[in-house]
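Subgroup meeting minutes
Present: P.N., E.W., G.H.
Scribe: E.W.

1. P.N. recapped why we're keeping a running log of single-chain structure predictions: easier to compare across weeks, and new members can see raw inputs and outputs side by side.
2. G.H. added today's entry (332 aa).
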Amino acid sequence: MTPTIKEIAKRAKVSIATVSRVLNNDQRVTEKTRDIVLRVSKELNYKPNILARNFVKKKSNVIGLLLPESSDEFFTEIIKGVDEVTYTHGYYTLVASSHKYRTLDESILTFMQNGIVGGMILLVSSLNNNIKEILDQSKIPIVMISGHNETGKYDAVSIDNYQGAFDITEYLIVKKGFTKIAHISGPLDNDDALLRKRGFLDACRKHNLAINNSWIIKGDFTRETGESACNELLKMKTKPQIIFAANDMMALGCYDAASKAGIKIPEDIGIAGFDDIFVAKYLSPGLTTVRVQIEEVGKTAAEILMKKIQGRNGSSHPVVKISTQLVIRGSC
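Output recorded in log:
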């Protein structure tokens, strides 16, 4: 049975009000009394009812983190970064995601209307008018994690997708001498994907590299679409020398396709990715990619949200851009 404040008070031989003051960090309690109450609480394995406490205080110490439907490593690192920061500020992180039974719009409305969360971090692939309309009604602080750099009314954290894609493409052209480069893009309605594709195309144009449209294939950031896109490229009469996948999960799919086809990397075809997820360096050969400090993205978003909740960031809506860097390994 879950212990109560009443039991703690009885065991510590103090009033219920004193226990409440200790658990709420009230400085009016003596150090001796505080030590006794905390010791008894620990002995009883007392866990506070967060929702009940929030209801009494009319203030929530729960942060909502909304993610797209996905389970890959990128989102795990985002969660880790957010939770590390919110925990140090005395907040809990509640994670939810959209899926086939619940849209992102519905998830946002649920967080906004039930009073559970005191702030929200929202990772969105793009800001459509419906989401903007919903967010405009919000009474709680919101921070976006988005590839879209012109959010305007919202505080946001953004990866420098364009520059990262430009840099790795330029490296492949100038340093490695590739002239036949394919690109597996992300979804067409995803701002990160569009910026990475633009960076790829602009680097090709800068170095007067012919762009073969049949070598640009749309994926959806999953390992499966990376494999199918790679299979499509390998079946072409004129094959590319290297494939630049818009994220590492699709690059992993390329490894799968090459392995099944008996094609060696990098001898027969090169592979490059974007994100530098944990497994990238353990592939054989290791994946050349663009490193994104993914955990730092989550931490930065959480720090901004904490400042908003505490009223320390004024009325401005900054967009913080997280830089990227090339990681050169043996895949090309």
